[in-house]
Amino acid sequence: MDIQDTPSWKRILTVSELTGQIQDLLEGRFAHIRVRGEISGLRQPASGHAYFALKDGQSQIRAVIWRSTRLRLPHPPKEGEAVQITGRIALYAPRGEYQIIVDAVTPEGAGNERERLLALHRKLEAEGLFAPERKQPLPYLPAIIGIATSDTGAALQDILRVLESRYPGYHVLLAPCQVQGETAPDSISRALQALIDDGRADVILCGRGGGSAEDLAAFNSEIVVRAIAQSPIPIVSCVGHEVDTSLADFAADLRAATPSVAAEQVMPEKRALLQWLHEMEQRLRHAMQSQLKKKQQLLSSHQSRLQHPSRRLDSARMRCDELQERLSHATQRLTAPQGQKLNSLSQRLQYWAHGPTLPHARSQLSQLMERLAQGAQQQQQQRSNRLQALQQQLSSLSPHAVLERGFAIVRHGDGEILHDSQTVEPGTEISITLAKGGLDAHVTRTHRKQGR
Q: How many CB atoms neighbour CB 278 within 10 A?
């Protein structure tokens, strides 16, 4: 049996294997976290790193701030201070201990700042600055991309790297600005206004890399949010990491999780575009070839049916001569026997007109005419008598004669004659035909009479 098929509870792991699996699980699941607690046991050795435990009433967890991170913290950690830290979980394999690698530290007193942000959010939302209908669509293939960020930060390099990989030959219009500190909101607002006044950018990316809440505070300022909301050019916000959300994200036309993702969203990949264009070209070529083939076949069909007028005239003349010749032959065939018959009748007529049997024939004809007149009169009288008898018989069988005797004809609403009371239900509409006129009625009840 393969070892991978062995149930986990039957496998025997080494300590390193178990530690590696735990490390993969923890570091993958908790790659970016925020934790609130109190700093305890703070140590800052000569290396410049800071080690402490973050605890609350029931638990504690070790944490470390590397020297490079500690140097850029606006508020160095202090023993016993209540803080919110941002970082990730890492496992130190030699001791089998997990700890938080800290990226940012915010004093717990920042809770008042959160209330301020919530109040500002409600205010700007009530003004409609975050309304979905205000969002502008992004251009599909922008000719010039405006960027409002620090010209020395990693965010700009991430954006340029992604743009270069997706569509070389792009054009960027950079408006450098401060992205953290007290003067950052005004700086960002001026940078956005400069891009808007310039007017060449089709879309604007505005943001910075990750950091603490204080580092990102400029993008929660009212002046920046209003500058983004009032821009006639579509703006993509790209502030911090995926878990970071600022008020600028709500006002922007599109929010990107990171600056790199923002670059991907505004610039399509050239290779994919070329592939799509190639597919469209092939489909268009095939469609044009198919249509051209159909038109050529149709043209050939019309050409085969189309003749020069002189050829059609010659054909008509030959057809006319053929029909005239056939008419002549047919006339001769028909008139020859009739001419012979006419001669025979003419000879017989002359014989009867001048022969001895004509007076006798005339006398015989007179007698026959008289007998014919008498027979015709007699036959006419017989047929008249027969017709009268049939008329009397027909009158006796006529439905109108029956109706005159007090009977009636009852029909369904569809005109079918009723013969059986059991074929209708109470409430059925019926029509009754009388000798004079008719009636429309509803059946209230039915009953069957025994016998006929």
A: 10
